Amino acid sequence: MKETKPTVYAGSGSAIDNYNAPKPVNTESWGAFDKNNRQHRTLMALCRNRQWVKPDDKHPSGEVADMDGAFSEFLKSERSPVKKPLMEMTPQEVSKIIIAMSGVVKHKWSK
Q1: What is the 3-state secondary structure (H, E, C) of 87-108?
Q2: How far apart are CA 79 and CA 102, in angstroms?
Q3: Whether this model's pTM surpasses 0.85
Q4: What sign for the dihedral angle of Cα 31, 34, 39, 42?
Q5: Which one has a higher pLDDT value, 40 or 15?
Q6: Tens of pLDDT, residues 94-110
Q7: Hey, which bits of the chain come out as E strands?
């Protein structure tokens, strides 16, 4: 277990109010993609195979790959080999993500 040392609160107002205040949430989506990029479309297909989908009435199947949710969280996690938004990755980095996602899909269906 990680030990923490006590810290002295140097802010204004109550330390308890500061502790209980809502923490900022990182809502930035790392899963934004280019629909014309072949590698990005491959990742979308892998997300659907992994069943990382969300409802969408516009799509004939009624669902689309959850690029802003589950996939974005995957890119931010320790399991991702490249920790940066998809649109900022080089083709070589996207290839690493494709290989990792293939492993995720394989693990999902090996049970």
Answers
A1: HHCCHHHHHHHHHHHHHHHHHH
A2: 13
A3: no
A4: positive
A5: 40
A6: 999 999 999 999 998 88
A7: 53-55, 63-65
